[in-house]
Design brief:
Blueprint: E1 7-9, E2 13-17, E3 24-28, H1 31-40, E4 44-46, H2 56-60, E5 65-68, H3 93-109, E6 113-116, H4 118-126, E7 130-132, H5 152-155, E8 160-164, H6 169-174, E9 178-181, E10 188-191, E11 196-201, E12 207-212, E13 219-222, H7 234-266
Parallel strand pairs: 1-4, 1-5, 5-6, 6-13
Antiparallel strand pairs: 2-3, 7-10, 8-9, 8-11, 11-12, 12-13
């Protein structure tokens, strides 16, 4: 029997699409995220479109990793005890209700976890951190937003360096102390959660990469977008390859445990 594919759970965004008078709800996953999992991590991306928080435990038993994607929507500031500063910016409370609980479950159950942009922010908030809702308005910080109405190649072009902590996995993946990355975010880390360790910073000091402190499996996140043409960037490819290796290690463990349970049931061992 062929070995089943290694599977990575990606959350869907909740959006209203269509003309203003004829909008309908859609569940959305960006192609570039699914494709990066497929070609970069060499795993099968999966979506559980209507997953609820109380189903996380049973759904995690079916997958080998979780990747929290970027999104046009921001994490609702009520999750870090702040009011909404700009009501015109999109929010996705349905996604919040799932992903914030999903982060905690992944850490507790040692499920490989990779966060990108919004996913990076979700991990920080889920573990008790807070966000700058508008980084560009904070004294001393740069404007990290992408230019509007330009080609994607311009939006996703590298624009600033990230300095990595010496000896960190990011320094190893980058094959050097720093790397130039893209920048397409309006929010950013204000207070880093106590369970996280900063591993990379932008020139203005903003946290751009972190790991879950003491994690026994892959548990890292970045503020930039490594999924964009990940095969063309050595840092991005190394990151996705490492994530994929961690997912395959979990798959082997998961399948082995499943086989042991089946054997025990066949011989009547409880």
């Amino acid at each position: 029997m062929n070995k089943p594919p290694c599977m990575v759970w990606l959350p869907a965004d909740h959006r209203l699409l269509g003309d203003h008078d004829h909008q309908a709800p859609f569940l959305v996953l960006g192609d570039k995220y699914a494709r990066a999992v497929r070609v970069g991590a060499q795993a099968q991306p999966v979506v559980f479109p209507l997953a609820q928080p109380d189903q996380i435990g049973e759904l995690l038993q079916l997958v080998d990793g979780v990747m929290l994607t970027g999104s046009a929507a921001n994490v609702h500031p009520s999750h870090f005890d702040e009011p909404v500063l700009d009501a015109s910016l999109p929010l996705d409370e349905a996604r919040d209700s799932l992903t914030l609980a999903l982060v905690k479950a992944c850490v507790a159950q040692r499920v490989p976890l990779l966060g990108i942009c919004r996913g990076f922010q979700e991990i920080n908030v889920a573990l008790g951190g807070s966000l700058h809702q508008q980084v560009h308005t904070v004294p001393g910080l740069l404007d990290h937003r992408e230019p509007s109405r330009v080609a994607h190649d311009v939006q996703y072009a590298p624009v600033h360096a990230v300095q990595f902590v010496a000896g960190s996995v990011f320094q190893a993946w980058a094959q050097g102390p720093n790397a130039k990355v893209n920048s397409l975010h309006g929010q950013g880390v204000a207070r880093l959660a106590s369970g996280l360790t900063a591993l990379g910073h932008a020139p203005d000091g903003l946290v751009e990469a972190f790991g879950v402190s003491g994690a026994s499996s892959f548990a890292y996140a970045v503020q930039w977008h490594p999924e964009w043409r990940c095969l063309d960037n050595c840092l991005s490819l190394a990151m996705f390859r490492a994530f994929g290796e961690a997912c395959r290690a979990r798959q082997s463990e998961r399948l082995s445990q499943s086989a042991d349970r089946c054997t025990n049931e066949e011989v009547g061992i409880s």
